[in-house]
Amino acid sequence: MKNIQTQIGSSLIEVMVALLVTAVGLLGVLTMHTKALKLNQNAHLYSQATILANDIMEAIKTTPDAVASYSLVKTGTAPASPGCTTSCTPEQMAQMNLNHWVTNISDLLPGGEGAIAINSTTNEILITVEFELGYEKNEAGEMVPLEKANVQLRAAG
To answer: Whole-model pTM above 0.70?
Structure first.
């Protein structure tokens, strides 16, 4: 009988320990899932930036007579569209392409900005797409970006 008396409540302790171990395991799985979602979102943003950089590079290749017109200092606002619809000059096409490109960057990427540097001596083109990754609240309760990221595409003109 003594053995039975010492065993009373031991099943409850075993169940509590098992629940604690399960809870810690589930917390780890939840943390991994949250991190995976964040990394997936970052990968999506990098992919979008790469696609946009390639998009403007292809546009530059379609108007080789107006390569110099594609030079763009980093800006968040789109240059004005020239307004031509059918018979545009190469410079007007470059202006229209820049307008669409900058608009797409600001629409698809948080804090998105683009820049195009053209070296006329070496005919090298450097396209930079910059965007923000992740947000957190500051002391004032405002959402602020955690870090800036960028994608660069370098090619000979």
So the answer is: yes
